[in-house]
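Backbone-to-sequence.
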């Protein structure tokens, strides 16, 4: 039985797009080989497709894997999925809520430095 997501040890996001045609076996191999993590750990592993409108979660539940799948419908509905060069990123439960609500989990970027130039009249 799936317990509350805030009770897991870790929540990992696979940054960038993942081929969501992969099923439980393909995603668990990806976790093991690409991220050097244990798919049987007390963690949630999240994956998103290239269009950022589909999401899969893989969870080990002591007796087998649970795979959750969600698809956003509607024009322009997209997850604000992280694309930083880190392969897998550990996030908090609050960041998971933000991600599922359509918000970015990355801090906003400020203005770049502006240099003054002299104007001669």
């Amino acid at each position: 039985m799936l317990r509350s997501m805030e009770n897991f040890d870790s929540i990992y996001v696979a940054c960038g797009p993942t081929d969501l045609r992969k099923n439980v076996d393909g995603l668990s191999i990806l976790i093991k080989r690409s991220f050097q993590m244990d798919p049987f750990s007390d963690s949630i592993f999240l994956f998103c497709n290239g269009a950022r409108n589909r999401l899969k979660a893989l969870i080990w539940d002591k007796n087998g894997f649970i795979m959750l799948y969600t698809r956003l419908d509607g024009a322009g509905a997209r997850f604000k999925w992280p694309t930083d060069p880190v392969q897998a990123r550990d996030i908090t439960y609050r960041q998971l809520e933000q991600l599922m609500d359509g918000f970015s989990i990355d801090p906003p970027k400020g203005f770049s430095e502006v240099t003054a130039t002299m104007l001669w009249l």
